[in-house]
Amino acid sequence: MADEKKRPLKYTILVIPNNGGKVKEIRLSFDFIIILTVMCIGMLLCGIGYLTSHAAELESDRLQVFAWKSRYEVTESANAILLAENESLQSEIDKLKSQMDMKDYLEQQTTSAEATKYMPSGLPVGGQVSVPSAYSSDIEGITFTVGYGAKIVATGNGKVISVKTDSKYGYIVTIDHGNDYVSYYCYKAQPFVSEGDEVTRGQSIYLVGEDEPQLTYKITYQGNPVDPNAVMDAAG
């Protein structure tokens, strides 16, 4: 009997229906129960591991979404600040542009006004004066009949480049206006200016005498004679 093999343990499970039906018997060996238990525990552990891993992934995703949201909010805030700064800078640019446009306009006006002063466009006589004659190609100029005591004046800013005596006119004062225009004042009285003098528009050159009523006035542009009436008319 000592050598007799031990019989494996077996368990019987009775399934008794509530409705009084046939009783069923399920016989399970101990080894099968152990295996089944191990399998259940293994599946449980796998489920727990999966859930743990999945929960970690979900947490990682949540943290990543939170980080993205934070970065988005920071970016939006930075964009709002940059937009406000850009609007401020644009306002400053517009203001500076307006100031520069005004400055350019004033400079142009100043330059234009300054340039006008150097155009020999004024009348060469101050005081009583007749209507100028038509342009004469013989004298390459026009003539004025001027009253006693009137003044013969520079028609634009410039520099006296010569004062010459002349057998026909008496004296010829030549003024270079620095813009290719040169004006000539031909009169028999002694002039007030000398070569090298700077003159301004309206400055006296001669004083009209009692016996010398005629002034001859000439203009050249780039060395060519032009009608002074046209230049004076252009300046109004």
Account of the protein in words:
By secondary structure, the chain is an alpha+beta fold. The protein has two helices and twelve strands, in the order ββαββββββββββα. Strands 4, 6, 7, 8, 9, 11 and 12 form a seven-stranded antiparallel beta sheet that branches. A three-stranded antiparallel beta sheet has the order 3-5-10, with no helix packed on it. β7 (170-176) and β8 (181-187) form a beta hairpin.
Describe this protein with a few key phrases.
alpha+beta; 2 helices; 236 residues; 2 domains; three-stranded antiparallel sheet; 40% helix; Glucose Permease (Domain IIA)
Strand content: 25-35%
Mean pLDDT: 82
- Biggest β-sheet: count, sense, barrel? 7 strands, antiparallel
Any idea what the shape is? rod-shaped
Q: Would you identify the regions where 5 or more consecutive residues have pLDDT less than 50?
A: none
Structure annotation, total helices: 2
Helix/strand class: alpha+beta
How are the SSEs placed, and which strands pair?
Blueprint: E1 10-15, E2 24-29, H1 30-117, E3 125-126, E4 142-145, E5 151-153, E6 158-166, E7 170-176, E8 181-187, E9 198-199, E10 204-207, E11 214-221, E12 224-226, H2 228-234
Summed up, what is this model?
40% of the residues lie in helices and 26% in strands.
